[in-house]
Each structure stands twice: as C-alpha cells, then as structure tokens.
UniProtKB/TrEMBL annotation:
GO BP annotation list: intracellular protein transport; protein import into mitochondrial matrix; protein insertion into mitochondrial outer membrane; protein targeting; tRNA import into mitochondrion
Alphabetized UniProt keyword annotations: Membrane, Mitochondrion, Mitochondrion outer membrane, Protein transport, Transmembrane, Transmembrane helix, Transport
A GO CC annotation given for this chain: mitochondrial outer membrane translocase complex
Identification of the protein by name: Mitochondrial import receptor subunit TOM20
Upper taxonomic lineage: Eukaryota, Fungi, Dikarya, Ascomycota, Saccharomycotina
Gene3D superfamilies assigned to the protein according to its UniProt record, in alphabetical order: Mitochondrial outer membrane translocase complex, subunit Tom20 domain
Length: 178
C-alpha cells in the first residue's frame, strides 16, 4: 500500500512540476510563445480548410441528389395534380426529417413541394419555423443550386436566377455608379 501511495505522490509531483515549467516557459520565453502562436494559427487554418472542403462536398452531394431526383421524378405541371403532389411531398418530407440518415431525401421532398406551391415565400417561412434546421439549410442550398420556376418568377429577370437562365446580365453603366 505504501509503494502505491509513494508512486502516486511522485507521479502527481511530476505532473505539477511539468505544469509549472510549461506555465513558466509560456509566460517568459518569447520563442516558446511564438511557437505556440504559430501552431494555433496553423491549426485554425487547417480547421477552416477542412470546414470549406466539407461544405463543398456537401453542396456537391446535394447538387447530384437534386438533379438525379428531378430527372427520375419530375414535378407535375397540371394544376389538379399539383395540390395532391404538394400534400404527398410535405407528408413524406415530415416523416423523413425525423430519420437521421434521410436529411437530404427529406429536403428533396420539401423542395419539390416548394416547386409546386403558388407562393414560395410563404412556404419558406413555414419551413423555417417547422422543419428541422439541418433540413431547412439543405432546402435553401437546393434553391441556390437550382431555383424552382416559382422562385424564378418572383426574382424576375433582374434577379440572380434570371442572369443564370440564359438571359443577358444587366450591368450598371458608369453613370449609374457615380
């Protein structure tokens, strides 16, 4: 019993001595502080780069899923079919939103429901309040990747979607900038 207590005391003393030494070096040595700062900056850059790569890969996955699903299951254009389609997609999206691995599929359902809804700004407000945040963010990314026709109509020709839809981009003249 005495040996274990002695060993624990020595290990604890060594740990405290290392902590005191580290604190002394941190406070007094400019080279040590510079080294710590460089490591911190490098770690922050790596974390930012990793976050950017994750975001880009997520956007690519969303883009691929959206285009593949829209090609396989196009949105109906008939008015009578739109109402039924809207209700089916919202119900399916709500069910899938509760499943952890089905966030993109749930967002696809909500995106399709948005595409057939006559006033997309209203439904986006409802989504923001009722849909889980991760799913709502994916829906917004899908709108940014490929805006539905209802959203494009609201934005009009001067909006961002009008410039990307084959129409010439309207640029301000020198006189407008002055």
């Amino acid at each position: 019993m005495s040996k274990a207590l002695t060993f624990t005391a020595v290990a604890g003393s060594a740990l405290v001595a290392y902590a005191v030494y580290f604190d002394y070096k941190r406070r007094s040595s400019p080279d040590f502080r510079k080294t710590l700062k460089k490591k911190s900056v490098k770690q922050q850059k790596l974390a930012a780069k990793e976050h950017e790569n994750t975001k880009k890969s997520k956007l690519d996955a969303i883009k691929k899923a959206l285009t593949a699903d829209l090609e396989a299951n196009p949105v109906p254009t008939d008015l009578s079919e739109k109402e039924n389609f809207f209700m089916q997609q919202v119900a399916l999206g709500e069910q899938l939103a509760t499943v952890p691995d089905k966030k993109i599929e749930a967002a696809l359902c909500f995106y399709k429901a948005l595409a057939v809804y006559p006033n997309p700004t209203d439904i986006l407000g409802i989504y923001q309040r009722s849909v889980p945040e991760e799913v709502y963010e994916i829906v917004v990314m899908m709108i940014a990747v490929q805006p539905p026709a209802a959203v494009t109509n609201i934005l009009g020709a001067g909006g961002a979607a009008g410039a990307g839809a084959g129409e010439p981009e309207i640029k301000p003249s020198e006189e407008d900038l002055d």
